[in-house]
Amino acid sequence: MDAPETRELAYFVAVAEELHFGRAAERLGMAQPPLSRAIQRLERRMGVALLERTSRAVSLTPAGAVFLAESRKALDAVAAAVRRAQRSGRESPRLLVVMKPEGDAGLLGRILPAYRLDPDAVEVEVVVCGIGEQSAMLRDGRADLAFLHGPWDDVSGFDVEPLLTEDQVAVLPRGHRLADRAALVLSDLDGEQLPRWPGVDVAGASGPLVRDASQLMQLIALSQVVAVLPETMRRNARADVVCVPVLDAPSSSILVAWPERTRSRAVAAFVRACTEVAHGGRAVENAGR
Question: Which residues form the HTH lysR-type domain (predicted)?
Fold first, then answer.
């Protein structure tokens, strides 16, 4: 069969996300009948049902769930190609580097001066985003590089270089029952309210959805949640919270990430600067090669 057009992928994603043809048509700015016909033609050409339709509901088939995930990736790739081409065509090219607040563990202040010394360096714009937004911004071309955090952030489709591995601490309100402990284990936190993170399924987390660091610190200070976070959180911790080491928590890694098969010399130079600052210039062979 002929490959689906980008327009058809956008139609299917809208229906799959709304699970309602009327709402999807409104979102796309078109009438419902041609949208329904377009999805039917797509299914006939593919030879597989993507949607289950009844008089009362629309749902995804297993094939539809797979096609939704892949369609999103394809649309992101198209958007990324346009954005990156537009940036590279500017008279003064620049790199967009994205991170969440404190997401560089203090490394970026040393990375940027080291990067500027490289003959392939260009201007850098740093974008500070909400928690969990970095991967999406890198994937759809809004950013050229991102500081991500393992094992939580989605790194599929990226090349990555680990920069720093950290132990984790429990961040607690100052009056918490465990605040005076020298160290904890994870089981000490059983029964505590833990925050939920965008796009991350954390076992046992039933607290509010947290989108930025200041929101999280406020919730902790008000005894609404406790959180297990990388130990660099100690550097800028508020006076009304405490950080206690968690002995059996998995290590957290700070990674610099960039799209696979990148051929940008400026990206390669930035990754080199990251490694020089983080661990003495160990060679990175797959950045921009």
Answer: 4-61
